From TrEMBL:
The keyword Signal applies. Keywords: Glycosidase, Hydrolase, Signal. SUPFAM superfamilies: (Trans)glycosidases (SSF51445), Beta-D-glucan exohydrolase, C-terminal domain (SSF52279). Residues 1-19 form the signal peptide. The gene is bglX_1. It holds the Pfam family Glyco_hydro_3. PANTHER family: LYSOSOMAL BETA GLUCOSIDASE, PERIPLASMIC BETA-GLUCOSIDASE-RELATED. Belongs to the glycosyl hydrolase 3 family. This is beta-glucosidase.
Length: 738
C-alpha cells in the first residue's frame, strides 16, 4: 500500500525548502553588503595546500597571510580534521570571518580506496556505485573536507587518453546514469549533513574528446555531437543537484572551455538554470594565454569571469586582475557579485557560517575512517567490477583442492598499483595485493609460489627462467600483468596501449609450459593483448580495484562471487582503429571485411571489429534469452511499448546478468547510430531459475537532437535489440512510431 504524505506536510516541506532558500539569500545579501571589492574577489580565489599538490605549483610562501587578509575563499589539498581546523582558524582571523571551503580529489574513495571509476562502471550496478560515493563522502566529510572534485563525467571513446580511468566509459546513457548515482552518493541527504560533501561535475566540457587522445589537446566536434554524446552526463549531474561544476583545460571548437560563455552561461547557467558555482580547473584561466586566447592574465581574468567561470583554481588571475578590471569598468561589479553569491550560498548550505569547524572533528574522523563497513563496501564494489573475458576448459573457478598455485607477474604482489592514479588518502596499512588475497583465501590448504618474471615496462627477460621454473611446479598459474598506477591518469596519454614492456612475452613463456594459465589484466584503461586473448584459456580484466583488490580477485577466482562485469568501453585490436565505439554510424559502402566487396569501408590489414565489445563480459554460468513479447508494434508519440522476455540461468552457478536494451532508429532527419544503449537491468538468478524481464520504450527513448538541435522523436521504423553485449544480440523486434 503506497503511503501518501499529507498535502500540508508536502507543502510544508516545499515551503520550508523555499523559505530556507529565501533565508539564505537574505543572509548572503547581508554579508555581500559588508564586503569590500577585494574581499569579494578573495572568495573567488582558490589555492592548493602543499602536501598533495595535483598540478604545477606556484610557490606562494604567504598563503596563510593571504587567508588572514581575506584573499582566499577556498583551499584544495588540505585534509584531516586537525589540519583543516588549523587553516580555518586562520580564516576566522580575517575581517569578514568568512569560512573557507576545503576541496579534494576524492575520485574513488578517500582512506578506503575503491575501484577506479571505469572499473566501477563495469559493474553496471548503480546502487553499488552510489554507495561507493556515499562511503567516500562519509570518510571525506569526517576528514574536514567539504567538497570532492568528482564525479568526472567525461564521455571517452579513446583509450589512448589516460583519464578514461576516471570516468564511466564511452556510452552516454550508462555515463549519465552513473553521473546521477555518483552525485547522489556524494551529496547524500543534502549539503549541511555531516556525512555529505559537495559534488563537482567535471570537466565541462568534452575533455574526453582530446584530439589523438593526447591529454589537454584541442577538441573539435559538431554541436550535434556535443549535445548528443558529451553533454547529457553533465545534465544528469545538474538533475542530481550537483553543487559545483569544474570546467576543462581543452579548447572546444577554438574556444577554451574556461572562457566559453556558450558552455558556462548559455548552456549551464542559462538553459539548465544552474545555481551552483563553477571552479576552473587547475590554472586553466591563466592557460588561456598559452592557448592563444588571452594576451595576458588580466584579459584571461576578464574572459573567464564574463564566461561564467566563478572560482579561480591556482592560476592567480582573479587576484589581482579583477579589481583593476572593475576599476577600469571592463567588468561590471554585478558579475563579481553573482559569482560571490554562488560561492557564499554553498558555504551557508554547508552550515559553515553557523560553525566553520563543524566538519573538523578528530573524534568523528577516527570513528569513520577505514571502518570495516567501508572496507566491505569496497570489496563488494571490487568484486562486481571484475570482467571475465574468457574461461575455456573450465579452468575457473579454481578448485580448493589445488596443491600449488603460482602467482607470476610484476603486479602479483603490488599494493600501490592497485590504488590507481587518483587515490589520495590511502595509507600503507592493510592494502591487499593479489598474492595476499589468495593467501587470505587458501591459508595453508594450498601452497602459493611466486615469481615476478619481469618489470612492468622494461625490456629485460632475465626473470623469465625463474618464472618458468616456478610455473612448472604449480597446478595452476595465475598471472598479474598490466599497468603501473601512473601509466593511466592525468597527463598519462599513451600512443601504444599494448600491455607494456615484455609482459606479454612472459605470458607466452608461461603458456609454453602447458600449465593451466589464468591471466589477470590490471590497468586503468583498455589495453591491447591480442596474443593473450587468442591463446590463453582464462582471462579477467581486474582494472585497479583499490584497498581490497586481492580479496576481491581471490573471491572471484574461487567463485565466491560469480563475475558479472561488462565492459564500459570498447577494446580495440590495434591503436590504428581508434576511435572505435559500439554506437557508430552506418556507412554508404559496406563496412565489412570481405575481399569480394571491392568498395568497402574496411581496413585491408585487420577487421573493423573490436577485440572485446562494449557491454561484453562472461559469467561462470550461462543465460538464455527467450519468449520476446511486445505490447504493440505500432505506437503513437504519447504511447509506450512494453517489452518482455524470459531470462533463464542455464548453468550450474547462481549469477548476475546485465541485460541490455539497444534501439536503432532506421531512418531519421539526422543519421542515427546502428544501435544505442537505452536501458539495462542487472538480474540475479539462481542456477536453473527463470525470470520475466520487462523494459518500457517511450518517446523519450526514441528522441534525439535534430539538425536544429531540437530534442524529439520522429515517426518512422525502429528496431529493438536485447543483448548480453553490444555485439551479442539475443532477441530483436521491429516497431513503428506513428
Ligand atoms: C587537476 C585535474 C582536475 C582536478 C584538479 C584539482 O589538474 O584536471 O580533475 O580536480 O586539477 O586537483
Amino acid at each position: 500500500m503506497k503511503r501518501y504524505l499529507p498535502l500540508a506536510l508536502i507543502l510544508g516541506i516545499s515551503l520550508s525548502a523555499s523559505a530556507q532558500d529565501k533565508k539564505i539569500e537574505k543572509k548572503i545579501d547581508s554579508v555581500l553588503k559588508l564586503m569590500t571589492l577585494d574581499e569579494k574577489i578573495g572568495q573567488l580565489n582558490q589555492y592548493t595546500g602543499d602536501r598533495d599538490a595535483t598540478g604545477p605549483i606556484t610557490n606562494n610562501p604567504n598563503k596563510l597571510k593571504d587567508i588572514r587578509d581575506g584573499k582566499l575563499g577556498s583551499m584544495l589539498n588540505v585534509r584531516g580534521a586537525k589540519e583543516t581546523r588549523e587553516v580555518q582558524e586562520v580564516a576566522m582571523q580575517s575581517r569578514m570571518k568568512i569560512p573557507l571551503i576545503f576541496g579534494l580529489d576524492v575520485i574513488h574513495g578517500y582512506r578506503v580506496t575503491f575501484p577506479i571509476p571505469l572499473a566501477e562502471a563495469a559493474s553496471w550496478d548503480l546502487a553499488e556505485i552510489e554507495n561507493g560515493a556515499r562511503v567516500a563522502a562519509r570518510e571525506t566529510a569526517a576528514s574536514g573536507v567539504h567538497w570532492t572534485f568528482a564525479p568526472m563525467v567525461d564521455i571517452a571513446r579513446d583509450p589512448r587518453w589516460g583519464r578514461v580511468m576516471e570516468g564511466a566509459g564511452e556510452d552516454t546513457y550508462l555515463g549519465s546514469k552513473i553521473a546521477f548515482a555518483r552525485v547522489k552518493g556524494f551529496q547524500g541527504k543534502g549539503l549541511g549533513n555531516l556525512d555529505a560533501v559537495m559534488a563537482c561535475a567535471k570537466h565541462f566540457a568534452a575533455y574526453g574528446a582530446a584530439i589523438a587522445g593526447r591529454d589537454y589537446n584541442a577538441v573539435d566536434m559538431s554541436e550535434h555531437t556535443l549535445w548528443e554524446t558529451y553533454l547529457p552526463p553533465f545534465k544528469a549531474a545538474v538533475d542530481a543537484g550537483a553543487a559545483t561544476f569544474m570546467n576543462s583545460f581543452n579548447t572546444l571548437n577554438g574556444i577554451p572551455a574556461t572562457g566559453s560563455r556558450y558552455l558556462q552561461r548559455d548552456i549551464l547557467k542559462g538553459q539548465w538554470k544552474y545555481q551552483g558555482f563553477v571552479v576552473s580547473d587547475w590554472g586553466s584561466i591563466g592557460e588561456m594565454i598559452a592557448h592563444g586566447y588571452a594576451k595576458d592574465k588580466e584579459q584571461a581574468a576578464e574572459l573567464a569571469i564574463k564566461a561564467g567561470s566563478d572560482m579561480d583554481m591556482e592560476s592567480r588571475s582573479y587576484l589581482p586582475g579583477l579589481a583593476k578590471l572593475v576599476a577600469d569598468k571592463k567588468v561590471p561589479i554585478a558579475l563579481i557579485d553573482d559569482a560571490v553569491r554562488r560561492v557564499l550560498r554553498k558555504k551557508f548550505e554547508l552550515g559553515l557560517f553557523d560553525d566553520p569547524y563543524r566538519f573538523s572533528d578528530v573524534a568523528r574522523q577516527e570513528k569513520e575512517i577505514n571502518s570495516a563497513e567501508n572496507r566491505k563496501a569496497s570489496l563488494t564494489m571490487a568484486e562486481k567490477s571484475i570482467v571475465l573475458l574468457k574461461n575455456e576448459k573450465e579452468i575457473l573457478p579454481l578448485s580448493k583442492n589445488l596443491k600449488k598455485i603460482a602467482v607470476i607477474g610484476p603486479l602479483g604482489k603490488s599494493e600501490k598499483d592497485m590504488q590507481g592514479f587518483w587515490s589520495i588518502a590511502w595509507e600503507k596499512d592493510n592494502l591487499i595485493s593479489l598474492y595476499q588475497g589468495l593467501k587470505n583465501k587458501v591459508g595453508n590448504q594450498t601452497e602459493l609460489l611466486y615469481a615476478k618474471g619481469c618489470e612492468l615496462a622494461d625490456s629485460s627477460k632475465a626473470g623469465f627462467a625463474e618464472a618458468v621454473a616456478v610455473a612448472k611446479q604449480a597446478d595452476v598459474v595465475v598471472m598479474a600483468v598490466g599497468e603501473a598506477f601512473d601509466m593511466s591518469g592525468e597527463a598519462k596519454s599513451r600512443a601504444n596501449i599494448h600491455i607494456p614492456g615484455v609482459q606479454e612475452d612472459l605470458i607466452k613463456a608461461i603458456q609454453a609450459t602447458g600449465k593451466p594459465v589464468v591471466v589477470l589484466v590490471m590497468a586503468g584503461r583498455p589495453l591491447i593483448f591480442n596474443w593473450t586473448a587468442d591463446n590463453v584459456s582464462a582471462i579477467m580484466y581486474t582494472w585497479w580495484l583499490g584497498s581490497e583488490a586481492g580479496n576481491a580477485m581471490a573471491n572471484v577466482l574461487y567463485g565466491n562471487y560469480n563475475p558479472s562485469g561488462k565492459l564500459p568501453m570498447t577494446f580495440p585490436r590495434d591503436e590504428g582503429q581508434i576511435p572505435l565505439y559500439y554506437n557508430y554510424l552506418s556507412t554508404g559502402r559496406p563496412a565489412k571485411n570481405d575481399k569480394d566487396t571491392r568498395y568497402r569501408s574496411a581496413y585491408l590489414d585487420m577487421p573493423n571489429s573490436p577485440k572485446f565489445a562494449f557491454g561484453y563480459g562472461l559469467s561462470y554460468t550461462t543465460f538464455d534469452y527467450t519468449d520476446l513479447a511486445v505490447s504493440k508494434t505500432q505506437i503513437k508519440p504519447d504511447e509506450k511499448i512494453t517489452v518482455s522476455f524470459t531470462l533463464k540461468n542455464t548453468g550450474k552457478y547462481a549469477g548476475e546478468e546485465v541485460v541490455q536494451l539497444y534501439l536503432q532508429d532506421k531512418f531519421a532527419s539526422v543519421v542515427r547510430p546502428v544501435k544505442e544503449l537505452k536501458d539495462f537491468q542487472k538480474v540475479m538468478l539462481k542456477a536453473g531459475e527463470s525470470k520475466t524481464i520487462t523494459f518500457t520504450i517511450d518517446k523519450e527513448k526514441l528522441s534525439f537532437y535534430n539538425q536544429q538541435l531540437k530534442w524529439g522523436a520522429e515517426a518512422g521504423d525502429f528496431k529493438l535489440m536485447i543483448g548480453t553485449a553490444s555485439n551479442n544480440i539475443k532477441l530483436e523486434k521491429d516497431f513503428t512510431l506513428l
